[in-house]
Write a structure and sequence with these properties.
- The protein is built from 15 helices and 22 strands.
- The protein is globular.
- The longest helix has 21 residues.
- Helix content is 37%, strand content 21%.
- Helix 4 packs parallel to helix 5.
- It starts with a strand and ends in a 16-residue tail after the last strand.
- By secondary structure, the chain is an alpha/beta fold.
- It folds into two domains: 269 residues, Aldehyde Dehydrogenase, Chain A, domain 1 (3-Layer(aba) Sandwich), CATH 3.40.605; 185 residues, Aldehyde Dehydrogenase, Chain A, domain 2 (3-Layer(aba) Sandwich).
- The structure holds nicotinamide-adenine-dinucleotide.
- The site of nicotinamide-adenine-dinucleotide has 30 residues, from helix 7 and helix 8.
């Protein structure tokens, strides 16, 4: 029986004003409708923003420690409902169950981090350059935050955005990806149960072109947080720039793992399998390229191919499944088009390269783990984000060449190097153009208390996660207190009293 998902505006679950709906289906069983969802447009967004703007006046006055306590309660309820949320995610998004549990856990961790932050929402103090005067800063909320989400972390990413925004004193309007509205609706149930007041959180479902654009264009939204493709990110930046909104963009990746000749090869194979085929390659941090020293190339490739071919492809909710489906048919077609591109470019397909249709998988969007060797730098296979279980292997002769290749793409999100040589490891940390570098670990697996984001076309310099995400949702207020009882002039009264 399909669930009905409405919008949540001003404390009430409501239909789209147009009355329109759309359906979502399971990536693993496409003939099953999972939810019927409100298909909204500008009118719904404008009403949600109006409610959020009104609620902001009261919400910003709630002491930050109290806002933190509410988010702590949200975390507690998420803990109770973790398994239920994870099972639903496996159905809605197709993420295998162990990773779905991890996705929910990331949301729980983010709630508890925000809870703690409620007791340490510090500004700074500084002595003045003048006598009998003190300077300090306070963090202030911005107002209404607009949030536009992708489908690949249906709990973690919305919580990365909503919880810090709320803790900071903002109200919000969020648009989930059209493929995964159910998980955000469940998060709303939890936040409502925890006692977040009416109007503070607003959910508007619908297509990016209508709902997303209405969020960008609404003059009462002060900050936009977007996670998605670089292509849409550029559009977001240009539209939001017209009204000088603050914009945080977390965009695409073409992440790579370097494997040096002194690496622990079995460990590097473990990392590559998890990095490339975890979440069916649909993580922004997925390992899409292996850049490997020629001395260990053949051994690594043989081991990796054997392991990839043994991966169990199946229903994502089964505990023994290693690889679930990709999100939908158009994603599957895009992924397969890169197999064709790779072949045309002269790369060698050593395994996979086709849809997997055995048994019950015939009813979903499954793609075999795919590995290409002999991939050339600057080929499309090596340069473009595929967002599926497709891995390119590039052979190099030296560490310096590996660094050249890893940096030759437009993206710069995550990276890693497998080596036992501390000098190589530290040079990699210094020289790889990316926001994240792992040493002897795969490119995936962010921890919520650390800054997360990338360089180059992966973003615009903001960092979600950790303490840095609070910079996105706050403004600094600088305060000068002069207790000298006379007019003092900064930069002008420069003499020291004798
Ligand atoms: P997408 O860019 O297609 O869509 C993201 C969101 O933007 C969706 O909610 C969509 O409806 C909305 N949207 C689409 N067109 C819009 C428009 N014109 N105006 C406003 N909103 C619009 O991305 P996706 O397919 O959902 O997600 C995959 C992409 O997200 C990949 O490129 C991946 O690398 C990236 N991603 C990045 C991170 C990160 O933190 N850097 C994390 C996860 C995913």
């Amino acid at each position: 029986m399909a669930e009905t998902i409405k919008n949540f505006i001003n404390g009430k679950w409501v239909d789209a004003k147009s009355g329109d709906t759309f359906e979502t289906r399971m990536p693993a069983k496409w003939n099953e409708v999972l939810a019927v969802v409100a298909k909204s447009d500008k009118e719904d967004v404008d009403e949600a923003v109006k409610a959020a703007k009104k609620a902001f006046k009261k919400w910003k006055k709630v002491p930050v420690a109290k806002r933190g306590e509410l988010l702590g309660k949200v975390g507690d309820i998420m803990v109770e409902r973790k398994e239920e949320l994870a099972q639903l995610m496996a159905k809605e998004m197709g993420k295998i169950i162990s990773e779905s549990r991890g996705d929910v856990q990331e949301g729980i961790d983010t709630a508890y981090y925000a809870f703690g932050e409620g007791r340490r929402f510090f500004g700074k103090t500084s002595p003045s350059e003048l006598p009998n005067k003190i300077n300090m800063t306070f963090l202030r909320p911005i107002g209404v935050a607009g949030m536009i989400c992708p489908w690949n972390f249906p709990v973690a990413i919305p919580t990365w955005k909503m919880f810090p925004a709320l803790l900071s004193g903002n109200t919000l309007v969020i648009k989930p990806a059209s493929d995964t509205p159910l998980m955000v609706a469940k998060l709303f149930d939890i936040m409502i149960e925890a006692g977040i007041p009416d109007g503070v959180i607003n959910l508007v479902n619908g297509p990016g072109s209508a709902v997303g654009n209405a969020i960008l264009e609404n003059p009462d939204i002060g900050v936009i947080s977007f996670t998605g493709s670089s292509e849409v990110g550029k559009h977001i930046a240009s539209v939001a720039g017209q009204s000088l909104k603050k914009v945080s963009l977390e965009l695409g990746g073409k992440n790579a793992q370097i494997v040096m000749d002194d690496a622990d090869i079995d460990l590097a194979v473990d990392g590559a399998l998890f990095g490339a085929f975890g979440t069916a390659g649909q993580r922004c941090t997925a390992t899409s390229r292996i850049i490997i020293h020629e001395a260990v190339h053949d051994e690594f490739v043989e081991k990796l191919k054997n392991r990839a071919e043994k991966m169990k492809i199946g229903m994502p909710w089964n505990e023994d499944t290693d690889l679930g489906p990709v999100i939908n048919e158009s994603a599957l077609k895009k992924i397969h088009s890169y197999t064709e591109i790779g072949k045309k470019e002269g790369a060698t397909l050593i395994t996979g390269g086709e849809q997997y249709k055995e048994g019950e998988c015939a009813g979903g969007w499954f793609y075999r783990p795919t590995i290409f060797t002999n991939v050339k730098p600057f080929s499309r296979l090596e340069q473009e984000e595929i967002f599926g279980p497709v891995l390119s292997i590039i052979k190099v002769k030296s560490f310096d060449e590996a660094i050249e290749v890893i940096n030759d793409v437009q993206y710069g999100l995550s990276s890693c190097i497998y080596t036992k040589n501390i000098n190589n490891a530290m040079h990699a940390v210094e020289d790889i153009d990316s926001g994240i570098t792992y040493i002897n670990g795969p490119t995936i697996g962010a921890e919520c208390h650390m800054p997360f984001g990338g360089v180059k076309s992966t973003g615009n310099g903001h960092r979600e996660g950790g303490w840095t995400v609070y910079e996105i949702y706050t403004e600094q207020k600088t305060v000068y207190i002069d207790y000298s009882g006379k007019l003092q002039k900064a930069q002008i009264d420069t003499s020291i009293e004798k």
